[in-house]
Amino acid sequence: MSSETIVTALFLIAAVVAAGVLISALFPAIHRTTSTFGAVSHEADLQIRTDMKIVNTFANATTLKAWVKNTGSSRVSTGELTQADVFVGRAGDFERKSLSELSYSIEGDMNANFWDPGETLSITVPYGFNKFSAGDTAYFSLVLPNGVRRSEEFRVTITT
């Protein structure tokens, strides 16, 4: 009878040690996985809450103007805006510019450091690299650093 108790106690101790080894081996992997899922869900949340709409575009022979409204529920810092990419030119023949290289302003800006929901971003692209002719199809696209992108193609008007 005492031998059964000793054997049971040894099996119990071995099971506890094995469980401890298993947990210590799996815990780092579980921690890394939960950290990865947390980071991915945070990025997805930012993309879901960030939205914009191109409300108007205009291009003539020398200038393209676009107005983009922040329709999301989150604000975009001016630091993030300067990292945004603008693709502009003829449809199928466009160039990438950094928004920091262009003339832009936030109209109705209540907080100078952020593009808040409901505010309109006005972007002016002067260019000589790709002059438009009447009837050309112009292409404009704004891509924020988090990957949210809006594009539009429209006809060029030449005014005299």
Q: What is the quaternary state of this protein? A: single chain
**Overall pLDDT:** 82
Can you tell me the CATH superfamily of the largest domain? Immunoglobulins
Shape: rod-shaped
Task: State the secondary-structure class.
Answer: alpha+beta
Helical residues, percent: 25-40%
Question: What does the radius of gyration come to?
Answer: 28 Å
Cα(first) to Cα(last) distance is 108 Å
CATH topology title of the largest domain: Immunoglobulin-like
| Number of β-strand runs | 10
Which spans have pLDDT < 50 for at least 5 consecutive residues?
none
Descriptive overview:
This protein is an alpha+beta fold and 160 residues long. It folds into 2 domains: 1-49; 52-155, Immunoglobulin-like, CATH 2.60.40.10. Helix content is 33%, strand content 36%. The chain has 2 helices and 10 strands. A 4-stranded antiparallel β-sheet has the order 1-2-8-6, with no helix packed on it. The longest helix has 48 residues, at 2-49. The chain starts with a helix and ends in a 5-residue tail after the last strand.
Describe the structure concisely for a colleague.
The protein is α+β, with helices and mostly antiparallel strands and 160 residues long. Helix content is 33%, strand content 36%. A hairpin with a 3-residue loop joins strand 1 (52-59) and strand 2.
Task: List its salient traits.
single chain; 160 residues; alpha+beta; 2 domains; 4-stranded antiparallel beta sheet; 33% helix
